[in-house]
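Bench log, entry 3. Co-assembly request; chain sequences pasted below exactly as received.
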Amino acid sequence: MHRLYLVPTLLINVVIIFIPAVLTVALAFFRWDGITMPVFVGLQNFQALWNDRIFWTALTNNLIWTGIFLTIPIFMGLLAATLLLIARRGSMFFQVIYFLPMIIATAILARVWQGMIYSPVSGVNGMLQRMGFPTIDPLTQPSTALLGIATVDLWHWWGFLCVIFFAALRQVPQEQIEFARLEGVSFWNTLRYVLIPAIRPTITLMMIMTVIWSFLVFDFVYILTQGGPAFSSEVLSTLAYRSAFYDLAVGKAAAVAVVISLFGLAATAFYIRAQAKEFQS
Amino acid sequence: MKREVTLIESRTTLLLTYGVLGIALVITLFPIALLVLNSMKPATQIVQNPLAWPETFRWDNFTRAWEDARFSTTMLNSAILTATTIVLVCSTASLTAYVLARRKIESWKIVTFYLLGTTTAPIQLFLFPLYFGFAKLGLINNPFAVALIYTAIFSPFAVMLLRTYFLAIPRELEEAAQIDGANHWQIFTRVMLPIVSPGILTVALIIGLYSWNEFLIATTFLQGADNMTAIVSFFLLSGQYSSDWGEIMAAALIIVLPVVILFVLLQRRFIEGMAGGSVKG
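Structure output for the full assembly:
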C-alpha cells in the first residue's frame, strides 16, 4: 500500500522532468523550429556547435565561472565562518545579515546592481565618474562583463556558504581548537590543520554543488547583459535559451542542454556518492 | 566554564575579528541600503547622487510603481501561484518522505537516488520540450501548470528535508499505533504528520520563498499581462528605456519587504531549511 504514497511525487516528476529530458536528448539529433515536423539530422547540431565561436565562448565562460566560484566565495565563507567562531558574541546577527541577499529575488538584485551601482547615469559608478575617477561600467565592456556579473552573484552567494560552514564548524570538538590555541598555533595554521580537515565533507559537498550550479547560472547573466556585449558574457544556459526561444533553433538548444547536462552529470555522480554515505547510516 | 576562560582572545584579535566581520556587513548591506534609500527619492536626485539622503520624500514612487507594474493583478497572481505550489509540494513530499525515511518499500534506495539526481538536473534539460508541449496543450499562461512545474523542481528538496524529520521519530510510536489497530493511513495522518508539522512549516516557508522569487520559469510560461507574476512585471517595468529608478526601487521594495519581514521573524527556520536542503536560488 505504501507504494501509492510515492505516486503523486513520481508522477509529477516523470511528466515534468523525466519525459521532457529524454525528449531533449532526442531533439539534439533533430532540426526543429518548435512548430513544423522535426527533421532528423544526426550529429549536425553538435558539429555546428563545434564550429560555433559563441558556443566556445559560452563554454569557456562557464569554466571561468566555475573557477571563480570554487575559490573566492569558499575562501570568503570559510574566513568569515572562522571569525564568527572567534567572535561568538553577535554571531547570529552577522549570520542573518550575510544571509539576507539569498532571500531576495535574483531579478531584483540584478536591477539594483545595474541601476544603483554599475550605471554611469544613475549609479554610484556615474557619481564617481562625475567626481573625476576613471571608473567604467563593467557590464558594457567585453573584457569585464562576465566579471561584473560574477561580482553580483558572489555578493549574493557567499553568505550562504558562510552560514553552512559556520554550522559545520560549531560541530568541531571544542577541545581540538582549545588544544591548538594553548599550543600557540597561529590562526592560519589552526584553520589549515584543525578546522578545515574537520569540516572537509561539508567543503567537498559545497564544491560539488558549486560545479553543478556554475553550469546552470542563468538569471544574473540574462538580466544584466543578456550574454553581451558581443556575446562576451554568454554562458551555455543563456545560449540554449536564446537558441530555442529567439532563433527557434530548438535542436541546437537541445544539443547545448545536453552539453550542460554532461558537465552536471559528472558532478552529480560525485554528489550522489557523497550523499550516499549519509543514507547508508 | 573552563572553555569560556581558555577561549578568550586577546583584545587585538577580537578587534581585528569584528573589524573584518563589520566590513563584510557593510558590503552586504550597501546595495540593499541603496534600494531602500532611492525608493523614496525623485529620479532627478538619484541621478545627482544615489548615496545622498532624500531631499524630498517621494512617497508617490510607491503608488506609481503599484500602478505601472500592475501589482494589484500580478501580486495576486504571485500569491495564488505560491500558495498552490506550497500545498502541492507539502502534500506530495510528506507522503514520499515518510515512505523513504521508513524504508516502507524495497526500492526506496533507487527512488531516493533518482530524486537526488533530479535536484541537480539543469532546467534547460527539460525546458524546451515542456514549453512546446504545454503550448500545444494550451497550458501557457496557466498558473496551475506552472505550479506543477515548481512542484516537480522543488519537491526533491522538500522530500530530502522532510525525510530527516521523519527519521527523528522513534519507531515505538508507530508500533504502538499499529498495536492499537490503526491502519497505515491513520498512522501517517494522525501519528506521523502532527509530529513533523514543524518540518512541513519550514518546507512551506522555503518553497514559498522560491516560488515568489522564481524568474526563469515564470518569465517563460506566464507571459500574458493578466497572468504574469510580480517578479516578471517588475522585470518588464525596470527594462523600459525611460527608466525612473526611484519608481523601480519602490517596486522592488514592495516585492522584497514582505519576504524580509518574514525572514527576520523566522530567521532560524529559513536558514536551517535552506542550508539543510542545499538548493541554490
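The radius of gyration of chain A is 23 Å. Chain A has one domain: 3-280.
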